[in-house]
Specification:
heterodimer; A: 4-stranded antiparallel β-sheet; 0% helix; B: 113 residues; 6-stranded mixed β-sheet; 11 strands
């Protein structure tokens, strides 16, 4: 089992640039989550998909953030334009919607300078 | 609104001691309470979980104690080891929420040799 796969693992970008984070959930899982982790705010749920459909995006900070899930094996989180305050670790996670265990990827470490 | 409050923020324990981390929740509709363990540079991983119909669950050196009336639950790590040094998060989910987790703020545990 390969687990949740995220890319890139690390990214440094300049303010104003577009950032795209990618996620491949565990095969067979039908729920996908994007979380953001910072020292100040801890782990925050940004958006949650079930069967590729966005169910709750109330955690998305603002219009600069968007997420898509075109199929069951791929999701993206895009920030455009990026700002220094977006610097954080972004985690993708997946689960069976009927179960309770969420499996996290190793995160994408984003630094916006 | 923070729905799960966790304490302490940090904890230092000697090898062989007992580590205790506490969480309190507000929403009585929560029906699943997991604890996640996170090592530096890694994503959170499920450690142990409990449902509100039981007061205690034990897995090896890790025990969850659950007090439904007080809306509190705690993680006890017996015989703490240096390898237990990590950040621990309590969490809670609502029924039919697709495993969507609401996290506590996290506790950084250091076990000294």
């Amino acid at each position: 089992d390969a687990g949740v796969i995220q890319s890139p693992r690390h990214e440094v970008t300049e303010m104003g640039q577009e950032v795209t984070l990618r996620c491949k959930p565990i095969s067979g899982h039908n729920s996908l989550f994007w979380y953001r982790q910072t020292m100040m705010r801890g782990l925050e749920l940004l958006i949650y998909f079930n069967n590729n459909v966005p169910i709750d995006d109330s955690g998305m900070p603002e219009d600069r953030f968007s997420a898509k899930m075109p199929n069951a094996s791929f999701s993206t989180l895009k920030i455009q334009p990026s700002e220094p305050r977006d610097s954080a670790v972004y985690f993708c996670a997946s689960s069976y919607s009927a179960g309770n265990t969420i499996y996290f990827g190793e995160g994408s470490w984003l630094t916006v300078v | 609104q923070q729905q799960v409050k966790q304490s302490p923020q940090s904890l230092i324990v000697q090898k062989g001691g007992i580590s205790i981390i506490n969480c309190a929740y507000e929403n009585t509709a929560f029906d699943y309470f997991p604890w996640y363990q996170q090592f530096p540079g890694k994503g959170p991983a499920l450690l142990i979980a409990i449902r509100p119909d039981v007061s205690e669950k034990k897995e090896g050196r890790f025990t969850i104690s659950f007090n439904k009336s007080a809306k509190q639950f705690s993680l006890h790590i017996m015989d703490s080891q240096p390898g237990d040094s990590a950040t621990y998060f309590c969490a809670a989910t609502l029924p039919a929420s697709g495993s969507r987790l609401t996290f506590g703020e996290g506790t950084q545990l250091t076990v000294n040799p």
